[in-house]
Design a protein that fits this description.
Elements (H helix, E strand, L loop, with lengths): L1 H30 L6 H17 L4 H22 L9 H24 L14 E4 L2 E4 H23 L1 H11 L1 H6 L4 H27 L6 H15 L4 H21 L2 H18 L12
Antiparallel strand pairs: 1-2
Helix pairs in contact: 1-5, 1-6, 1-8, 1-9, 1-10, 2-3, 2-4, 2-8, 2-9, 3-8, 5-6, 5-8, 9-10, 10-11
C-alpha cells in the first residue's frame, strides 16, 4: 500500500516538474539560454494565483489569467533583457538570469511574499479519490491530469503547427533554420512567453499543494535543472520521462530513506548521466 501511495504522489510531483521543465527545455533548445529566473517566475505564478483568488476571481479563471499575465511578462523580459545577450557566451546568460531571479524574488518579498499563503481549492476538487485501498486528494489527481493534458496539447502543437515547425527547426538545426528565413527574435519572444506561462501554470496550479511565497520556486528550479540534465539538454521527450523519474525518486527516497538521501541518490544519477549518457534518455540532448 505504501509503495502505491508513494507512486501516486511521485506522479503528482513529476507532473509539476513536467510543466516547469518543458519551459526550461524550450528556452534552452531555441535560445541556448539557461534561465535561472524560471524558479522566480514559478513563484510569481503561484503568488499571482493567490492574489487573484483574494480578489474574488473563481479558481478556474485564476488558472487562466495568471499564466497569461506571467507569459506577457516573460515576453517583455525577453525583448528588453535576454535579447541583448542572445549571442553572448553562456556564462553571461547564467549571470544575467540569476540576477533577474534575485530581482523578481525581491519584488515578491516586498509584495507580501515573505508570508506563506495557501490558495484555496474549488469545492469540486476538495474531496478524495479512493481506489485499491488507497486514497488520494482529488486536487492532486487533477494536477497530474492537467499536466498530462497540457503536455499532450503542447506536443501536438509543436508537431502540427507552423510555429511548432519553426521551434523544432530552431531547436534541432538552428543554422539551417536561419538559412530558411526563420526570424529568431520573434520566435524567441513567443517561446519565452509560452515557457514562462507554463512555469506560472505550474506555480498557480501547485499553490494549493506547495503553497505560495517568494521562494517557493527555488526547490522546484533545482529539481527541474536535474530533470533537464537527465532528459537531455533541449530534448522535450527526455524532459517528459525525466520529470516523472525525478518525481518518483524524490518521493520514494523520502518515504523509505529520508529527504537528504533521496537528493543524494538523485545527484548520483545526474552525475552518472553526465558521465555516461550526456545526451539524455533518448540521445537527443545537446552537449555544450
Amino acid at each position: 500500500m505504501l509503495a502505491l501511495s508513494l507512486t501516486l504522489n511521485g506522479i503528482v510531483l513529476g507532473s509539476v516538474l513536467l510543466l516547469f521543465s518543458l519551459g526550461l527545455t524550450l528556452i534552452y533548445g531555441v535560445g541556448r539560454v539557461v534561465n535561472f529566473a524560471h524558479g522566480a517566475l514559478f513563484s510569481l505564478g503561484a503568488m499571482m494565483g493567490v492574489w487573484l483568488a483574494q480578489m474574488g476571481l473563481p479558481f478556474w479563471l485564476c488558472m487562466i489569467v495568471a499564466p497569461i499575465a506571467v507569459g506577457i511578462i516573460g515576453v517583455v523580459i525577453d525583448w528588453a533583457i535576454l535579447a541583448r545577450i542572445r549571442d553572448r557566451p553562456l556564462v553571461d546568460s547564467l549571470l544575467l538570469t540569476f540576477g533577474l531571479a534575485l530581482l523578481i524574488t525581491g519584488v515578491l518579498y516586498e509584495l507580501g511574499g515573505r508570508n506563506v499563503q495557501i490558495m484555496p481549492t474549488p469545492d469540486a476538487l476538495s474531496g478524495v479519490i479512493s481506489f485499491g485501498g488507497i486514497t488520494l486528494p482529488a486536487y492532486r489527481a487533477f494536477m497530474a491530469v492537467l499536466a498530462i493534458v497540457l503536455t499532450a496539447v503542447l506536443m501536438l502543437f509543436l508537431k502540427n503547427s507552423k510555429w511548432g515547425l519553426r521551434v523544432r527547426a530552431a531547436n534541432e538545426e538552428p543554422e539551417m533554420g536561419a538559412c530558411l528565413g526563420i526570424n529568431r527574435e520573434s520566435l524567441m519572444h513567443s517561446v519565452v512567453g509560452v515557457s514562462t506561462a507554463l512555469a506560472a501554470m505550474a506555480g498557480a496550479a501547485g499553490a494549493p499543494i506547495f503553497a505560495a511565497s517568494a521562494v517557493v520556486g527555488d526547490k522546484i528550479l533545482i529539481l527541474s535543472f536535474m530533470t533537464v540534465v537527465i532528459g537531455g539538454l533541449g530534448s522535450l521527450r527526455g524532459a517528459v520521462v525525466a520529470a516523472y523519474a525525478v518525481g518518483l525518486i524524490i518521493v520514494f527516497g523520502e518515504g523509505y530513506l529520508g529527504g537528504q538521501l533521496a537528493l543524494m541518490i538523485l545527484f548520483a544519477m545526474v552525475m552518472a548521466m553526465l558521465i555516461n549518457w550526456p545526451r539524455g534518455f533518448f540521445g537527443e540532448g545537446r552537449v555544450e
